[in-house]
Design brief:
heterodimer; A: 455 residues; alpha/beta; Outer Surface Protein A, domain 3; twelve-stranded mixed beta sheet; three-stranded antiparallel beta sheet; 16 helices; 15 strands; 40% helix; B: 47 residues; little secondary structure; 6% strand
């Protein structure tokens, strides 16, 4: 396969050197030169191919510049990681560093697309007790090895339906930090229905991030996120979310929405949220079985691609006007960013990241909860099926056939194991629509950087 | 100075082979996805 990914977007010729991560914006002659160069042609041969379209001098200087980059390890870089990752996963001690605590398997909304089935996760309604939560935190500390930064997300259902336990667990966690030289980073995901000043104040003091669920325009939000009796929830939650975001100085939060087949023009929803003043926005495609009416269908993909382009262009415009905002899926760190191990081994589900049910069962992540074959253990006995942990730890971009030839493999790191499982019954599979959209988002994210680098 | 090529970043992923892998960085799903996997935008704790 090619060692570069070449594409044109918004007037830019962009070249991603896949294995080094270097990104080059090139002129038209270089854009045409590169495939020939990769085939092993020299300047004379390339010149012969292109001299009816470009001046020979241009072709030759372009080839020389490409060769310089190649020598410097910034172009046509080889993939040297496959053996490294094997060694890394074989030698790495398995530690747990993040838990998704299902603090409530219950919800005060009845969102149509909820993978938790209105909070109940194919099971019964339940609230996590302080005792179970405490054991989960103890398990995390005991299994975190030398990792100092530990993450605990209060998730649901709707975690504010069990708010006292959230507060008690934060207090307990803070007490343990000094004893074990750990640092907890608590986060909360909420639909906002029960959000009030007291919750905001507590979160602003204790939560490193809060995720506020809202889908965008009122009609879109209310259609998918109604109360159980059918009324929409937009009018109730939006003023509270605006206040909350402001109280966090527009930082360390996300308004997070889901778009579906019913709002394929989702760029309007993202911009609606931006127009309301939100600066940290994440809106994702719904992941649903193909027989659901709201599921994204293969034929929806072209329109979604166009929407991402529209959104990217609008974001550049707003950024230049001083009215920029962050869109989670267009964020890309070209200068820092994660190391190659992180990029190859993915989200850590089933290994360093586990979900805990209200009654203390462990699953590889929140999206596996209720899939009994993935029940890994519990807070009393610890991991009782280490094989599941092993299977997940072996999961990386080289074990996934669909990733091998994909230019975006170092950005999504093999994609979501739960999506792969749900669509292909194999955690080493892939979810094709998700992959197509991921590639598009990476292209847009890079194009935005190219546009803003012009200033 | 290149005439034909503007390079946006000189970071080379290969350089992280030796130093990377400490595991202190944030778990991606704890930020704002929950239904996808977005790793490329996470920060390195050792920047």
């Amino acid at each position: 396969m090619s060692l570069i990914h070449r594409y044109q977007s918004n007037g830019y010729n962009i070249v991603l050197d896949i294995n080094s991560g270097c990104i080059h914006v090139v002129d038209q002659v270089t854009y045409e030169v590169l495939p020939y160069l990769e085939q092993g042609m020299n300047a004379d041969q390339i010149s012969e191919k292109l001299n009816d379209r470009f001046p020979e001098e241009q072709i030759r200087t372009s080839v020389a510049e490409c060769e310089k980059l190649q020598k410097e390890g910034m172009l046509f870089t080889k993939d040297i990681y496959e053996n490294v990752i094997d060694e890394f996963t074989n030698n790495r001690q398995t530690v747990v560093k993040a838990l998704c605590l299902h603090i409530a398997h219950d919800c005060n909304l009845a969102c149509r697309y909820c993978f938790a089935e209105e909070g109940e996760y194919h099971g019964r309604r339940a609230l996590m007790s302080f005792e179970v939560g405490k054991k989960a935190l103890d398990f995390l500390i005991a299994n975190s090895g030398s990792r100092r930064n530990l993450e605990v997300d209060f998730f649901g259902g709707e975690p504010l339906m069990n708010w006292q336990v959230v507060k008690d667990l934060v207090k307990y966690g803070r007490e343990q930090e000094a004893l074990y030289n750990k640092k907890f980073r608590f986060t909360l995901t909420t639909n906002g229905v029960l959000l009030n000043d007291e919750v905001m104040e507590f979160c602003n003091k204790e939560m490193g991030n809060v995720v506020l669920s809202v889908d965008g325009r009122k009609e879109v939000h209310d259609h998918m996120r109604p109360f159980r009796k059918g009324a929409g929830s937009y009018d109730l939650v939006i003023p509270k979310f605006i206040k909350f975001a402001e109280s966090r100085n527009q930082d360390k939060y996300y308004v997070r929405g889901t778009f579906t087949h019913y709002n394929l023009d989702f760029s309007k929803d993202v911009l609606h949220l931006a127009d309301l003043g939100f600066k940290q926005i994440s809106v994702e495609p719904v992941v649903a079985a193909q027989d659901e009416d709201y599921a994204i269908r293969p034929e929806d993909v072209p329109q979604i691609m166009e929407e991402y382009d529209l959104l990217a262009k609008e974001m550049i415009k707003r950024e230049k006007e001083g009215k920029g905002f962050n869109f989670f899926h267009f964020m890309i760190d070209l200068t820092g960013g994660p190391c190659v191990y992180k990029r190859l081994s993915g989200c850590g589900s089933g290994t360093e990241y586990l979900a805990v049910t209200p009654w203390g069962d462990f699953y590889p992540c929140h999206q596996f909860v209720g899939e009994e074959e993935y029940l890994m253990g519990n807070v009393d006995e610890g991991i009782v099926k280490p094989q599941i942990q092993k299977d997940f730890s072996k999961c990386n971009v080289y074990t996934k056939p669909a990733c091998k030839d994909c230019f975006a493999r170092f950005y999504c790191s093999g994609g979501c194991a739960a999506n792969a499982y749900h669509f292909q019954k194999d955690i080493n599979g892939n979810y094709e629509i998700g992959c197509q959209l991921q590639r598009k988002r990476v292209e847009c994210a890079i194009m935005i950087k190219a546009a803003l680098a012009e200033e | 100075m290149m005439e034909h090529i503007k390079t946006l970043n000189t970071k080379n992923l290969q350089n992280t082979v030796k130093k990377g892998g400490c595991g202190e960085c944030q778990t991606s799903c704890q930020s704002a996805c929950k239904t996808s996997c977005t790793v490329g935008n996470q920060s390195c704790e050792h920047k």
